[in-house]
């Protein structure tokens, strides 16, 4: 594990070196319904998990543009493995809401923590007791919890705002519910908490994570910590889909070039597949446009950060959601020109199709609320989705 701060270029280079491993392990991860151990070990050795950890704890304090490029490069190799890597990285940012003494213990042995965050606050509940809380219930979407060391569930308290809690994974029971059509390799199991005590300092209100416009709630001064969390989460959930679509297009292009050369060598003619070429071109341009939408959000985010109004931030989220929907529709079209081989489960195009269809249902990309919010913004009305 690197012990010095890694630069923007070094972190991107680390992602480039990991991409072939992600591509090679994609099918294995899908069949196992979790990340292979050697993939997690390779990411740990690369230093990427510490991207959003303050330098005082040995982290790299990398800015959001570095994160953007890292996730996109990994996603072109595999959506699931890029997704869990992206979430594990940015969950370290979530953890910074806990008090300093908690963080000193959390990062005492290494410069990152592996901890899924579960946003489904209705999965379980919490009650206040002397010195802290007691948690009980079953939470879903524990991304890569099989390799996690801690868990960070969100829970409701009677008459209070939702709180984010931190507790060791050994205090929860894993429930293998991860039988899904796509994003299989993320290993996003449920977990059950049975009346476990959580100390007061291991909880903070969710409003501190999704802070209002103005001054950053973070104690740390690096630019990444002056950046609202919700758009970063939008990158974590959206870029794996855009990148996976681009990777699928590369796979289609390579496969089709091989078929063209084979026909030319065997028959002496080139196939007249203008219809397929037209579909592929439309998909390619759509994937390019989707990436450009995300890049515009990135530019705006880095310019405005916490100075951005909630309306502006809601607009960013709507744009990213629209880019995801564009990508989902275009990958479905691309899949129609893959031929019979495109139905094979080990086809990278087939896997990307299922992964994108599945992950586009993430709560951050709720179609109706994101489009409705953008309509409200256009007419001068306040956006309503609180995840901004």
Mean pLDDT: 92
Number of strands: 9
Q: Outline, from the CA principal axes?
A: globular
Q: How many separate domains?
A: 3
SSE string, helices as H and strands as E: HHHHHEEEEEEEEEHHHHHH
Proportion of residues in helical segments: 40-55%
The CATH superfamily label of the largest domain reads Butyryl-CoA Dehydrogenase, subunit A, domain 3
How much β-strand is present in the residues?
A: 5-15%
Distance between the termini: 34 Å
Category by helix and strand content: alpha+beta
Our count of helices gives 11
Biggest sheet features? 5 strands, mixed
The first-level CATH class name of the largest domain: Mainly Alpha
Multimer state: single chain
Catalogue the unreliable spans: none
The CATH topology annotation of the largest domain reads as Butyryl-CoA Dehydrogenase, subunit A, domain 3
User: What would you report as the Rg, rounded to the nearest angstrom?
Assistant: 21 Å
Please tell me about this protein's structure:
- With 388 residues, the chain is of the alpha+beta class.
- Helix content is 50%, strand content 12%.
- It has helices at 8-32, 37-46, 64-75, 79-95, 100-106, 206-209, 229-267, 274-304, 310-335, 348-359, 367-378; strands at 117-118, 124-129, 132-142, 150-155, 163-165, 167-168, 173-175, 189-199, 203-205.
- Strands 1, 4, 5, 6 and 9 form a five-stranded mixed β-sheet that branches.
- Helix 3 runs antiparallel to helix 4 and helix 7 (229-267) packs parallel to helix 9 (310-335).
- The two termini are 34 Å apart.
């Amino acid at each position: 594990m690197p012990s010095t701060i890694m630069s923007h270029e070094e972190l991107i280079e680390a992602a480039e070196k990991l991409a072939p491993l992600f591509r090679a392990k994609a099918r294995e991860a899908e069949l196992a319904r979790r990340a292979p151990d050697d993939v997690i070990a390779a990411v740990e050795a690369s230093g990427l998990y510490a991207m959003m950890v303050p330098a005082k704890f040995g982290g790299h304090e990398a800015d959001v543009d570095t994160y953007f490029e890292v996730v996109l490069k990994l996603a072109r190799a595999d959506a699931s493995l890029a997704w869990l890597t992206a979430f594990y990285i940015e969950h370290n940012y979530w953890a910074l809401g806990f008090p300093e003494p908690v963080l000193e213990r959390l990062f005492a042995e290494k410069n990152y923590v592996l901890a899924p965050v579960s946003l489904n606050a209705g999965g379980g509940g919490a009650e206040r007791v002397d010195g802290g809380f007691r948690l009980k219930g079953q939470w879903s979407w524990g991304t890569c919890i099989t390799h996690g060391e801690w868990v960070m569930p969100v829970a409701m308290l009677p008459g209070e705002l939702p709180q984010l809690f931190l507790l060791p994974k050994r205090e929860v029971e894993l429930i293998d519910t991860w039988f899904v059509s796509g994003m299989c390799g993320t290993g996003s199991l449920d977990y059950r908490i049975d009346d476990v005590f959580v100390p007061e300092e291991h909880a903070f209100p969710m409003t501190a994570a999704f802070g209002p416009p103005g001054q950053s709630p973070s104690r740390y001064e690096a630019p990444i910590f002056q950046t609202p969390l919700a758009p970063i989460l939008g990158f974590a959930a959206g870029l794996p889909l855009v990148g996976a679509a681009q990777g699928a297009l590369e796979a289609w292009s390579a496969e089709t070039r091989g078929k063209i050369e084979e026909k030319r060598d065997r028959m002496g003619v080139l196939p007249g597949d203008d219809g397929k070429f037209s579909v592929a071109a439309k998909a390619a341009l759509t994937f390019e446009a989707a990436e450009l939408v995300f890049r515009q959000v990135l530019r705006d985010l880095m310019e405005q950060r916490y100075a951005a109004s909630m309306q502006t931030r809601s607009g960013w989220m709507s744009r990213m959601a629209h880019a995801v929907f564009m990508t989902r529709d275009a990958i479905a079209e691309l899949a129609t020109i893959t031929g019979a081989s495109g139905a094979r489960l080990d086809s990278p195009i087939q896997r990307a199709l299922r992964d994108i269809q599945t992950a586009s249902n993430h709560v951050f990309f709720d179609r109706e609320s994101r489009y409705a919010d953008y309509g409200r913004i256009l007419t001068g009305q306040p956006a309503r989705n609180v995840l901004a």
